[in-house]
Amino acid sequence: MLVVRREVDERIIISGGIVITIVETASGYVKVGIDAPPHIDVDREEVWLSKQEVRMASAMLRPTPE
């Protein structure tokens, strides 16, 4: 894991066209903006986990080929 210190309006660039911008910091929270190409999903962890649960449930309901 890369750990860096950034200030408001500073950015982190990730290959593949992903840019993370520090938008605001206050009261122990950091607000970030994430720019990514349309084909890359960007989710908060709880949303990602929910999507994984739906995918798993969907996979379990598919009939297995005989």
Protein described:
0% of the residues are buried. 26% of the residues lie in helices and 30% in strands. The protein has a three-stranded antiparallel sheet with strand order 1-2-3, with no helix packed on it. It has one helix spanning 45-61, and strands at residues 11-14, 18-26, 29-35. It is elongated. With 66 residues, it is of the alpha+beta class.
Give short descriptive properties of this protein:
three-stranded antiparallel beta sheet; 66 residues; 30% strand; alpha+beta
Strand order within the widest beta sheet: 1-2-3
Mean pLDDT: 92
User: What is the alpha-carbon Rg in Å?
Assistant: 17 Å
Topology, number of strands: 3
Alpha-beta classification: alpha+beta
Share in helix: 25-40%
Instruction: Detail the poorly predicted runs.
Output: none
Separation, N- and C-terminal Cα atoms: 44 Å
Give the topology string: H per helix, E per strand: EEEH
Biggest β-sheet strands, sense, barrel: 3 strands, antiparallel
Q: Could you outline the blueprint of secondary structure elements for this entry?
A:
Blueprint: E1 11-14, E2 18-26, E3 29-35, H1 45-61
Antiparallel strand pairs: 1-2, 2-3
Q: Quick summary of this structure?
A:
Helix content is 26%, strand content 30%. By secondary structure, the protein is an alpha+beta fold.
